[in-house]
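hey so i finally got around to running both of the ones u sent me last week. sorry it took forever, my laptop kept dying halfway thru and i had to restart like 3 times lol. anyway pasting them below in the order u listed, first the sequence line then the structure token line for each. didnt double check formatting much so if smth looks off just lmk and ill redo it

first one:
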Amino acid sequence: MTELAAPLKGLRAVVLDTDGVITDSARVHAAAWKSAFDSFLREHPPEDPDQRRPFDADKDYLRYVDGMSRLDGAASFLASRGLRPTGTTVESVAARKEAIFVERLRQGGIPAYPGTVRLLHALIREGVPRAAASASRHAPELLERAGVSDLFDTVVDGGEVARLRLPGKPDPALFLEAARRLGSPPEHTAVVEDALAGVEAGRRGGFGLVIGVDRAAHPGAGERLRHHGADVVVRDLGDLLVEGALS
């Protein structure tokens, strides 16, 4: 039987980001952003020709969008291309992305990562409370369609973020609210994130362990996660399990 690896021993609770950590939805988010941003750049090309290149669903997504709310992500990327759009324009681009993502989500469910599911079952066996956290309002539907919603004690999604007026990452408010609902102080709680803004939020929040997930293993990605606050970096959450001795 698998057991929790040393870094997780002694922690009272675990908070997991959703996109890219629990489900393979970061890829779908990135593709939706690419469609929305590329359309905007074609319709409103920056003055600098070098800034007119299409959105990179890998590098640009990780650098400017991943882990942020839709509005913050849209504003961040557009600013990186030398644009200073109005609030209405940012909302329009974010709404376009949202429509594309919803359409693709409804076309079929997005699976959970097998290693994450194995870790969640191990946490359940150990009696460790678990929360899913996401700035996206779609988190509950994603978890339900992936068949893992019943593996969590609580979910703090974008709807709750708006209701409670929680600031976006790298502010730790989202993770702190999840830990509060689990009844665990941050210093005894782990945060699991794949985004730079997310691991920074975990560090700012004073969490006892910040785990960075680097699934693509791009050169330097693991080091960037550590620089922003990750204590441990893994390729897959199954790496946080070890084979226990037979009883």
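and the second one:
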Amino acid sequence: MTRSHEIDEQQLATLAAAGDTDAMKQIYCLYAGALTATAARYVVDREAVRDILHDSFVKVYASIGSFTSRGKGSLKAWIQRIVVNEALAWLKAENRLSTVSIDDDEAMDFAADDEPGVEGLDAPTLMGLIKKLPAGYRTVLNLYALEGKSHREIADLLGIAPDTSASQLHRAKLMLAKMINDELKLSH
């Protein structure tokens, strides 16, 4: 197998499916960092993130023979879906998807036009604020904003109604807006 900068994902997957441990190691080395970040967007507990990553790679190696390349980046996307599904399964198993309601008074303080800009925040600070959201809100926000899922798809994944998904997204945005405003006030 060639070790050029351009990786043939299908060839790498085929070798891994045949039990080539070098190919498996290469897949892990290529994607573990990004996949750890993906799991950490959903699950805050570091030990749980490690477990999710481990379980995900076990599933990846067990089913990699079914992978079919759809172009550059499709192997990472395929593995990322497995990681997201494992993170969601962990959240469900731990019963972490319950929601927290925002007081109506607090919600009224943040109209849609009051949404703060994030220009004053660096990415780690913003990600830290997102991690402080309740798990249900954070999960819906991630699935909607980062994974591009519709409310119907989110509802199917989480076993909730589409209206519940939309409501949780709205509340997540309100809570995040308040946290961003508070953070920006502290930094100025």
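quick thing i noticed on the 2nd:
The chain has two domains: 9-93, 104-187.
anyway thats it, ttyl
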